[in-house]
Every structure is written in C-alpha cells, then in structure tokens.
Fold this sequence. Notes:
Helix content is 34%, strand content 22%. By secondary structure, the chain is an alpha/beta fold. Among the domains are: 3-45 and 194-249 and 313-365, 3-Layer(aba) Sandwich (Rossmann fold); 87-173, no CATH class. A seven-stranded mixed sheet has the order 8-7-13-14-15-12-16. The chain has a five-stranded parallel sheet with strand order 10-2-1-11-17, with helices on one face. It has a three-stranded antiparallel sheet with strand order 5-9-6. Helix 1 (15-26) packs parallel to helix 12. The two termini are 24 Å apart. Flavin-adenine dinucleotide is lined by residues 11-17, 34-37, 42-44, 58-62, 218-219, 234-235, 253, 311, 340-342, 348-351, 353. Flavin-adenine dinucleotide binds next to helix 1, strand 2 and helix 12.
Amino acid sequence: MSSAVSEILIVGAGYAGSVVARELADAGKRVRVIDKRPHIAGNAFDELDAHGVLVHRYGPHIFHTNAERIWEWLSRFTQWREYEHRVRGVVDGREYPFPINRDTLNALYGLDLDEAGAAAFFERVREPREPVRTSEDVVLNSVGRDLYEKFFLHYTRKQWGLDPSELKAGVAARIPVRTNTDDRYFTDTFQAMPKLGYTKMFEAILDHPNIRVELDVDFEDVRRRGTFAHTVYTGPIDAYFHHCHGRLPYRSLRFAHEHLPDVAEYQSVGTVNYPNDHAYTRITEFKHLTGQQHAGTSIVREYPQAEGDPYYPIPRTENELLFKRYEAMSADERDVTFVGRLAQYRYYNMDQVVGAALAAVRRLLD
Ligand SMILES: Cc1cc2nc3c(=O)[nH]c(=O)nc-3n(C[C@H](O)[C@H](O)[C@H](O)COP(=O)(O)OP(=O)(O)OC[C@H]3O[C@@H](n4cnc5c(N)ncnc54)[C@H](O)[C@@H]3O)c2cc1C
C-alpha cells in the first residue's frame, strides 16, 4: 500500500478546500491540499502590494453572515476588525447611496420623503410583474423603470454580458431596496474583516501537522499518478469531467490594480459603482475595508469579461441543466466529494461556502 492511499487529497486551497482540510485533520485524517495557483486562500487571497498596502488580488471580499456557527468556526483562526461596507452608485456624475434607500430617492429626485412617503413612491413607480422570473422582473416589480435604467440595467449588462431579462431572478433579488436611510450594503449580524487579512486566516486554518499544502500543482498531474483514500474536489466540475458535455459558462473579470502614492483617500466609501459609464463596473479602495493607515492608497477597477479565470457561475436555466448532467455523473464518483462555488456551480458567498464545506465533511466522516 503506497503512503498516498491513506491520505485524502483536497483539490483547491480556497474556503471549500481549506475548511474541509482542517476538519478532516482535526478528526485525525492525513490530508494533502493542492492548488494550481501559487498561493492559498482561493479568490479571497490578499497580499501587500508593492507599496505596502493590503489588497485583495481577486477583487474586494467583505465577510458577512447571520450564521453564528460559521462566525465562531472562523473566529478560531482570526481576530476581526468590525467593518460595515458602504457602496455609492454614480448616476449622471453624482454619487447616490446604493442599495437604493430613501436618501437615494430624495437626492435623485429632489424630494423630502419620509419612510411612508418612500414606500408610497415605490408603490407608485413599480411595474407589478407576475410571475417574477427574471432579474428584470424583480427590479421593475420593486422600483419601476427609471431606477431600473439608472442603477441596474447597464450595470447588469456590463457585469454579466447579458440583459437582466436573460438572468434568473435570484441575481437581482440579492440587492435590497429600502424605505429607511440605512446605507449599509449588508445587514447581517456579523460583518467584519479578518484583522490581519484573509491569507493570514487561511495560514492558521491550514496550520496543522496532518495537513500538507502543495502549491502550483494541478489536479490533472496528480490524478494521473496518485491513488488516494478519497478526493475532495473544489475546482470547476466541468473541468473534472474534461468538459464531456460541453463547457459550463462562467463570467470572468480583469482586475486593474492601481496605487496612488500621494492620495490619502480616493473615494468616500469602500466601493463606488459605475452602472452607466466606463467599461469597468466598480472601483474599490482597500483602506476603507482594512482600516490600514498609509500615506498613499490602492484601488482596483473590475472589468467583466467572458474569458479568463472562472469567477461567477452564470445563473441561467440552460446552464443549470448542463450542471445537472455533470452533477449526475459526480454521483457515480463514489470516492470523490464535490464542494465549493465551482464544483457546485453555485453563487456562494464566503460564509455559505464554509457552511457547505462543513456539511460535506460531516457527510464524509459519517
Ligand atoms: C470578485 C469577487 C468578489 C467577491 N466578494 C465577496 C464578498 O464580498 N463576500 C463574500 O462573502 N463572498 C465574495 N465572493 C465569493 C467568494 O470568493 C467565494 O465564496 C469563495 O471564494 C468560494 O470559495 P471556493 O473554495 O468554493 O472557491 P475558490 O476560492 O475559487 O477556490 C477554489 C480553488 O481551487 C483551485 N483549483 C481549481 N482547479 C484546480 C485544479 N485543477 N488543480 C488545482 N487547484 C485547482 C483554484 O486555483 C482555487 O484556488 C466574491 C467573489 C468574487 C469573484
């Protein structure tokens, strides 16, 4: 019996892979984690840029959850910095609170609405839709055409390369509309950033004598050689099956990072959305997220694109049907567990993927 046989292989050192690895290691299993990238932490990877500012290489990651169990699990590996994310949307050259709230309405239309007035305003402008199937339906149904065109239509076209009418309702349903003046992007009970960053938190998660991490290693090279007691696969499910039913579509992004040496603060909040102007969707200034003090500042612009690393599963019915075909094949792979955003072709936030990984480990250990 080769030594590898008693080892569990984990493909991917992002949330899904790292959480599974730690739980298995704590349960006494020996684990080998590989990632084809040269670093751990998956898309949550952060690092000091050339100017010493902590940045998120793959775009801004803000932790938020209502699940105390997940908060506590991660809190074993990091301390936190309290942080509530705020976003502004630029329309006709002016910044407005986003998600849309009462202040957005008052500033945009020169009104002085109170909470009941804002509710009445939405009721008057909304275009009731029944049934609500697409993202267009969701937004028109709640805020009507003008706000839809100002804040959602063009942003969605840029972000997804699709019209909101071509996307499932769930995409827009994630963005609330408020009659109060709450301008926080998230309203979860727990909202915070790992005090020393995500990568440090992942280092702590993976710091266990039963865990061996190998970077710059592609699963394709390992699967040819190794025999493992079990494999936990967190990469794209279609790639696992060599795209035998065709490629699952993913939306990709190009991240244009920039350092501004003599600018202490570039923008008033963490993220500013540009729904209607520019090829990029948004600019994030990292110092807001991390609280870092620095004479200069670092920002990132996000340019959505069709080609490149797979970031977002595209929520359309035909894609879900294609995923189902791969999922059916995965059920026959008795020695492999598929978990994570790419393996489950699902829009998971960080807390959700931790939850999915903990559930997968429970099933595996049972
Ligand atoms: C731009 C952007 C912003 C986001 N912002 C937030 C946010 O603010 N809040 C939030 O909660 N969530 C956010 N998310 C979601 C978050 O990134 C995911 O929930 C999380 O990364 C999912 O973890 P994962 O382990 O499933 O996948 P990943 O982080 O993608 O990890 C998978 C890993 O598998 C590796 N891999 C793939 N194939 C192979 C192979 N063949 N061989 C070896 N290794 C392989 C990859 O290199 C990768 O490191 C954001 C995502 C993006 C793209």
